[in-house]
Amino acid sequence: MDKKQVAIVGARVSGLLTCKYCIAKGFNPIVFDLEPDIDGVWLKTMKTTRLQAPKALYQFSDFPWPDSVFDHFPTQQQMLQYFHSYAAHFQLMPHIKLQSRVNSISYDTGETFESNGKWNVTVNDIRTGDTKVYIVDFVILCSGRFKDVPNIPEFPVGKDPKIFKGKAIHSMEYAAMDHDKAAAFVKGKKVVVVGFGKTGLDIARECAAINGSEHPCTIVYRRDHWKLPDWAPWGIPFTYLYFNRFSELLVHKPGEGFLLSLLATLLSPLHWGVSKFVENYIKMKLPLAKFNMVPQHSFAKDTRACLICYMPDSDDFFDAVENESIKLKKSTSFNFYENGISVDEDNTRIEAELVIFATGFRGEEKLKNIFDSSTFGHFIAGSPRVPLYRECIHPRIPQLAVIGYSESLSNMYTSEMRAKWVAALLEGAFKLPSVDEMEKDIAKWDEYMKQSSGEYHYRSSIGALEIWYNDQLCKDMGMNRMRKNGPFANLFEPHGPLDYTKP
Ligand SMILES: Cc1cc2nc3c(=O)[nH]c(=O)nc-3n(C[C@H](O)[C@H](O)[C@H](O)COP(=O)(O)OP(=O)(O)OC[C@H]3O[C@@H](n4cnc5c(N)ncnc54)[C@H](O)[C@@H]3O)c2cc1C
Ligand SMILES: NC(=O)c1ccc[n+]([C@@H]2O[C@H](COP(=O)([O-])OP(=O)(O)OC[C@H]3O[C@@H](n4cnc5c(N)ncnc54)[C@H](OP(=O)(O)O)[C@@H]3O)[C@@H](O)[C@H]2O)c1
Asked: Which family does it belong to (predicted)?
């Protein structure tokens, strides 16, 4: 029987991995990316961008970091070099069509994943302007979550960016500038950064380094999140606290049986204790209390929702807050006025010439808009969380998978497991359950995410359950779930990508 023709949208971390695993299973995938190179979110970033997780957790399982990279948290340039070496090593480039934007995909017939129609993939060649339709059996969307479609908060008419005399941009535009241009752009300006995720933090630091306290940069934000000064609280590697099976025994899991549920309930004080242990360490290392930055919620919640922010050179940041090069303004709501931002909470006004929205991205919109069919678009983005079986398959969208949408604390590791799983599914190594069963499973994970991440459940984070999640994928693929030698190692040793190299 002829192998299915597979099209992959996106040629970055997720797309490269998916391409590699499809080739390994004998497919001849065709990969489209609108950019002129294969660097993904890592190409256009702030100067200071480094890997957030230790490199042992963010590496290709069969292509580890070269010995020449000593740093545990590689730089943007090292990341790019690594991706290029991977693509060259596995000869992926002949499969990749760059500067090829997938404008839309449409399916000729069928209403469930199992239908056997064809996808029409309409691709625009950015260089020539020509449009071509590729007819394929299976589409894998690896189009990324933190790029392309900015999330801009909504404001009442008359209090929106239009009224503002200065300039308002999204962090995406700032990151796209080369570093010198970005520095020249903010120099001497009163800047307000909206949002205090990793991007907001990095941009504020850059502004403070350029402008000092003469033109302070103000961060306007809604909620505090835990900042991690290093990956070894009180000397214990973080991976021993949150990346082993024992840590997962302490929390309730979707689809757990009675015994695991009982154990999680009995051990929940320990889970709370581990969180407090880390929180106390962070509060000892960082002056969060002094600057009113202690989060209202637990460290464990930020871990589950993948909202912790690694802050290696925290002294620079807190020095900048101390000397008022960076000012912090917390408020649940704010608006624009002619000369800046007005903060509703206490009716203060912050003058600004430049407002930078570091408010994240609308990854779900990107997924939704690629479908010609509004029904499929609605299936994907009609609820707060993109509902995917194994975080890859929508049971009612035929012959299509998504990789790289749901988040983890090390997205490369997670995308690799998913790429392996989807390639095995395509090969016929296992069959999917019925639509009804898949929907029930999605509902269980949905419930888990609501419980564990609260208002952030839309992020679809598997932050604290990476191994439990991998277990499901291994079970489907017929791989042994126990990846270490011996029960002690399986229970207590941290798990990472290299544990899943062998079948
Ligand atoms: C600045 C930054 C730093 C990060 N740091 C970390 C980190 O330290 N650790 C971590 O785990 N995660 C990190 N992340 C999350 C990061 O998104 C993932 O780790 C990973 O790089 C995502 O890879 P991806 O291939 O899934 O998506 P992307 O890198 O976003 O790639 C998607 C690709 O699809 C292409 N594409 C999209 N739509 C189309 C279309 N219609 N047609 C053709 N091509 C299309 C895009 O051009 C893009 O190249 C970071 C994200 C950002 C923005
Ligand atoms: N490796 C690195 O150095 C690096 C650098 C940058 C980014 N990243 C990664 O890239 C991803 C994206 O990061 P990001 O910081 O761009 O986005 P993000 O993590 O989604 O954070 C968005 C921020 O904007 C705020 N926000 C969202 N909507 C808002 C609204 N309507 N009004 C006010 N505030 C709003 C959020 O506040 P609330 O918390 O209150 O919702 C949050 O502070 C993350 O995974 C991050 O770890 C990594």
From this structure: Belongs to the FMO family.
